[in-house]
Amino acid sequence: MSSAFLQILNALSFAAILFIVASGFTLIFGLLRVVNLGHGALYLLGGYIGMSISTYTGSFLLGIGGASLAIAVVGFAIDRWLLERVKDTELKQVLLTLGVAMLFNDQALVIWGGDSRTIPVPELLQGAMQLSETLYYPKYRLLVLTVGLVVFTLLWLGYNRTKLGALVRAGVDDKEMVQAIGVDIRKLFVLTFMLGSALAGFAGVLGGAFLTLYPGADSEILVFGLAIVIIGGRGSLVGAAVGSLLVGFLSTFGQVWFPELSYFIIFGPMAILLAFRPLGLFGRA
After folding, report:
1. 119 Cβ partners below 8 Å, 6+ apart?
2. Is the pLDDT of residue 172 over 70?
3. What's the structural domain count of the chain?
4. Which residues form the domain of 120?
5. Residue 163: Cβ within 10 Å count
6. Is residue 26 part of a domain?
7. In this predicted structure, what is the pLDDT of residue 72?
8. CA-based Rg of the chain, rounded to a whole angstrom?
9. Do the domain assignments include residue 84?
């Protein structure tokens, strides 16, 4: 029983990381209609930057803040200087962001090498917390699970209960009308792109402390992000949360029960779902 509960906690903590990544991806892909295949590279780059900052300063919080800010600036540069030239052309967006991902991967390999790296966590978060007489669980994974819940709550409130969120939703549905009432929709979309990028960098630091950072991690996290957005529905924050839970549980228990079929266990049900709900669980036309 305790072993099964541990796997459930592992699935929830993994789902929390996946949600933070996928929430940024669904903001960019689902709301802004930008096919950013460089999102996984932003995750990996954010993890490396956070590792360097936290190692140099000795502060894990500075690593998280510095990486999130740095990747937000990188997102701004990608959106304003690159994607602006290929807007409204999805194929060009795919090729451009794929090229950006390859460039970032090569530079990361040159700077940080090809070995797996782990971000050191504060001493306060090291070790395990006693949950019952016989059950212990790593403190850091519990923190990741808590952070995932906080991020979901803040994003949901910002998207559904603030004027800024209403403007973003309105701008996606009718850009010309929002511009007609005097709102700089382009600036609003750039800020949204920066937020989605910052979430990728933020997740890179959190995930780098227990998933490790290595060349190729960006591709794996991007595949998971794509699966989550497709399952949950493009542009749906609740869909991203539900999709993250499904993928987190399928991946965790699939690796335990059927390690040789772990990817099929994720993408098999996704293919079946799309056959009956092409827009995903919470997607809309």
Report:
1. 47, 50, 51, 54, 60, 63, 205, 208, 209, 213
2. no
3. 1
4. 20-214
5. 7
6. yes
7. 97
8. 19
9. yes
Residue 233 has pLDDT above 60, yes or no: yes
Residue 1 clears pLDDT 60, i.e. is over it: no
User: Within its chain, how far is the Cα of 263 from the centroid?
Assistant: 19
Name the helix (H) or strand (E) containing 137: strand 136-138
Other residues' Cβ atoms within 10 Å of the Cβ of residue 197: 31
**Mean pLDDT value of segment 96-112:** 93
* pLDDT of the residue at 284: 66
For residue 75, tell me if it sits in a domain. yes
User: 136 forms bridges with which residues in the sheet?
Assistant: 130
Largest separation between any pair of C-alpha atoms in the chain: 63
User: 198 with 75: CB under 8 angstroms?
Assistant: yes
129: part of which helix (H) or strand (E)? strand 128-130
Query: Among residues 250, 283, 189, which one has the least CA distance to residue 11?
Result: 250
Instruction: Considering only residues 29 and 69, tell me which one the structure prediction assigns the higher pLDDT.
Output: 69
Measured CA to CA, the distance from residue 187 to residue 118 in angstroms comes to 36
Q: How many CA atoms lie within 13 A of 230 on its CB side?
A: 20
Across residues 103-109, what is the average pLDDT? 93
What is the average per-residue pLDDT within 209-233? 90
User: Does residue 233 fall inside a structural domain?
Assistant: no
Closest by Cα among 38, 39, 54, 51 to 199 = 39
**Confidence at residue 285, expressed as pLDDT on a 0 to 100 scale:** 60
Neighbours of 173 (CB within 10 A): 9
